[in-house]
């Protein structure tokens, strides 16, 4: 649905212009020379807006410079679908509008950074952006050089620091991912090496069984026993470390009594497979051959260990696969930039990517409302928000505490809450946490751009809102995202 924008009605008012002497009563022009005020008087005009009328709109091209002569005005900024009032004033002489018109043209469009509305009948002295920019550059060249250097320097610095922060975050995530991948990869390599040895031993044992001129019916019985034992091991209950140790002792004693060679080496394999003494006794009775028992125990032991090693390989490679899928989900390299998403998928993949940084001292609690519908979003950008919020929470707790990720619905928005049990944010800092370059971390530990970037992604990029609630032991960042696409203007 297309919404027609509100019309701006600036009307000329008597006498249409201000004299040089009248301009001198405005603090902005009082220090200028008579000639300068005369020039401004000749290039400006007076305009009025009735109470309730819109004077300028956030995002429109910045084409005029306004000085308030009378009335009350308010400045507002869009936060999601809401208009948040930032300034309300009736002070004569305050200015707004194209305040950066003096900056040299760098090809970037200049737009109003806020909306201004007249709360009562208001009158303004108005200069065009071109005239205001010209007088500033011509009359105050040194000041303009300083202001341009400050503005462009801050812009460049913010861009460089932001890029550096993104690279550092990428490096940290890569290091964490490599650490997480190393464990299952190393486990798979170890299991593969051991598996090669066990398969070689099985081939040798099979040769010895054949050389022993085992009757075909006995060899068939042995192979059937092997399959039955493996099947029983797959269904064996999980035992504690103490129970496994006791079972190893029982199996070792049983094997020693029957002269099984290296029974101490085979018993742990049978115990790990959940095979007890009753099962060994059944094997002994079905073979009915003391001479064949020793070789049969080792043969079945090799088969059991082979199965265990293959399970280890399967678990390790499965872990690698899940980590790779989490990395793909996090980066969304194979998906469209904007799509309808389930926010829980991004939260889960971010937790996987940050698992190494979260550590064992932090308990992660997920309170998800799985009935939430999908929302329109840029998932890779939102994952950057989750990364910043979770990383800040972990650092605030110094590696020990509870990280709570909660999702729920609030009217026509989805709310994602990232909470920690750290010391909290002091009251004097709560209003500044989203300011660029503001940080409470030690020098070198933060750039002060993480929350600023998160704010711009959520508010400007998704039409949502992000806020902070904090007290000692309970700090929560609340991200509110709309359930539907914003209406086009």
Automatic annotation (TrEMBL):
<dbReference type="Pfam" id="PF02518">
    <property type="entry name" value="HATPase_c"/>
</dbReference>
<keyword id="KW-0808">Transferase</keyword>
<dbReference type="Pfam" id="PF00027">
    <property type="entry name" value="cNMP_binding"/>
</dbReference>
<dbReference type="InterPro" id="IPR018490">
    <property type="entry name" value="cNMP-bd_dom_sf"/>
</dbReference>
<dbReference type="InterPro" id="IPR000595">
    <property type="entry name" value="cNMP-bd_dom"/>
</dbReference>
<dbReference type="InterPro" id="IPR005467">
    <property type="entry name" value="His_kinase_dom"/>
</dbReference>
<feature type="domain" description="Cyclic nucleotide-binding">
    <location>
        <begin position="28"/>
        <end position="136"/>
    </location>
</feature>
<dbReference type="GO" id="GO:0000160">
    <property type="term" value="P:phosphorelay signal transduction system"/>
</dbReference>
<keyword id="KW-0902">Two-component regulatory system</keyword>
<feature type="domain" description="Histidine kinase">
    <location>
        <begin position="305"/>
        <end position="485"/>
    </location>
</feature>
<dbReference type="InterPro" id="IPR036890">
    <property type="entry name" value="HATPase_C_sf"/>
</dbReference>
<protein>
    <recommendedName>
        <fullName>histidine kinase</fullName>
        <ecNumber>2.7.13.3</ecNumber>
    </recommendedName>
</protein>
<dbReference type="InterPro" id="IPR003594">
    <property type="entry name" value="HATPase_dom"/>
</dbReference>
<dbReference type="InterPro" id="IPR014710">
    <property type="entry name" value="RmlC-like_jellyroll"/>
</dbReference>
<dbReference type="InterPro" id="IPR004358">
    <property type="entry name" value="Sig_transdc_His_kin-like_C"/>
</dbReference>
<dbReference type="GO" id="GO:0004673">
    <property type="term" value="F:protein histidine kinase activity"/>
</dbReference>
<keyword id="KW-0418">Kinase</keyword>
